Amino acid sequence: MTRLAVPRYRDIAERARVAKATGDIRALQTDLLSQDSLPPSLAAINRQTLLDPWGRPYVYFKFPPTKSKAPPAGARRDRFLVPVNSQFDLYSLGKDGASSPPFTAKASQDDVVRANDGGYIGLAKKF
């Protein structure tokens, strides 16, 4: 019985962490979008100390203004390598603390991400 309980508990605890990160990202998104213009950093909205459930800061990447149609280097991308947001990326590095722009990269699978300009917030591997 104990052998089954430990993995089940770990799975439940990990799902709770993902749910917490999802809620945090929703709140951060609301804070960012309620400004007159997108701030340069989370510090500008006094959220620089907010840590994800794994103890790391959230990543906010405001896209620089450009006349080019090309997405900025480092923008998060879906399985077709198309950028998933138009103004900014916001995400947690997840359990492993590593990430890569494409969601299909192994390091990105456990990231909790904002995609479709906020239409999706959840695990990168499920997007």
Write up what this structure looks like:
The chain has 127 residues and is of the alpha+beta class. The chain has one domain. A hairpin with a 4-residue loop joins strand 3 and strand 4. The chain is globular, with a radius of gyration of 16 Å. The N and C termini lie far apart (35 Å). The model has no long low-confidence stretch (mean pLDDT 93).
Helix/strand layout:
Elements: H1 2-33, E1 59-62, E2 88-92, E3 112-115, E4 120-123
Antiparallel strand pairs: 1-2, 2-3, 3-4
Cross-sheet strand order for the largest sheet: 1-2-3-4
Biggest sheet record: 4 strands, antiparallel
- Low-confidence blocks of residues: none
Number of domains: 1
Overall number of strands: 4
**Mean pLDDT, all residues:** 93
